[in-house]
Amino acid sequence: MTFDTLTLILLGGVVLGALYALMATGLALVWTTLGIFNFAHGTFIALGAYIAWQVASSEALGGGLLVGALVSVVGMFFIGMAVYYLLIKPFERSPDIVVKSVITTLAGATILENLISIAWGPRNKQLSAVLTGDLQFLDLVMSRNEAAAVIVSLIILAALGIFLQRAPLGRAMRAVAQNREAAQLMGIDVARLYAVAFGLSAALAAIAGVLIGSIRFMNPLMGSDPLMKALIVVIFGGIARFTGPIYAAFIVGLLEAFMTYAVGLYWSPTVLFVIMIVVLVVKPEGLFGKHRKSV
Length: 295
Known about the structure:
This protein is mainly α.
């Protein structure tokens, strides 16, 4: 392996890690707050990309990428809240809410995928690049569009971290995640915060979808692979800390980049799943999770 090849692999891993961090953080937000896994998260990514394309593309409304991205993020926030009220809230008090949420979010994902196919068709589409051209430093060359994706992802994640740490609504969401009953006794509207968590998760998925759509071709099933990678990242990093999935995302991104070079694109997901299983066996709470002793 030459130095140039190594740097290309590292750069590719950083780009993947930034996108995975954005996907996984949205997934982890619902997981930590509601205690359920949202199988529609991948479809949120696809729907967010298609809404942005509808507004931004010259083949549709022609509003430009920035306007398309803003409409997509706002629209997906309200769609995420609607999904919570329609598919999760009716079963909120059920003792088997986890199983029912798996069924309802899978059903929701299937319905949304079919609606995307009906509305936009099965043919590939692509958003315009955030930035065009290449960045060159010494002998290293990187696409400006990919660099922009990394920077935007990090800015969004930093803003989300500040929101959860300092904003009253963010602190209330953390309180609900830690102890729902205590939060209710303190007068916090838990159902409203659950809806907001779902909305924020969908908005993050929309941003990820826009960035992916500007780099790769879009299709109605484009969310399947991001959902799988986000699941791996969340399990790999754990959800005890906000930064856990972010660190894990970059580790998984670099691992995938190296595995793609070493064993090929076909086998790299298999290697990632093997590593995930090993992590679950050795450290079930994730690499950056905290071990809780049973009483």
